[in-house]
Design a protein that fits this description.
Length: 133
Amino acid sequence: MTSVLDQIRWDKSEDGLVPAVVQDARTKDVLMLGFMNRAALEKTLREGKVTFWTRSRQRLWTKGETSGNVLKFVALRVNCNDDSLLVLAEPVGATCHTGHPTCYYREADEDACDWRTVTEAQFDPEQVYGKSA
Ligand SMILES: [Zn+2]
């Protein structure tokens, strides 16, 4: 059986990772950017929860495994060069560990001197992850 997984250019980076943008399937908001290897994408498709490879911890990481704020897999798209992914998902709760609905919750002000927060935090990260997080 053929698989789209065989058509993705995992070989383009030394560590076999491709960037994966996650977009809210309903609102089309961009939620986060992560990296996937083949195992992460297989797990995502198999279990229906978006899973990445974390470079800092060097392991598979299912988004929401600590917070419960998972991203339910909806659809997978690939770019023209087969080297980056767009994952449409249904977020459960806030996506960002800061409590914001998206990781992209800050926007440069008019003169690009500073960032201003453009979304509202939905939870207190200390209550979800503990004070050490
Ligand atoms: Zn974030």
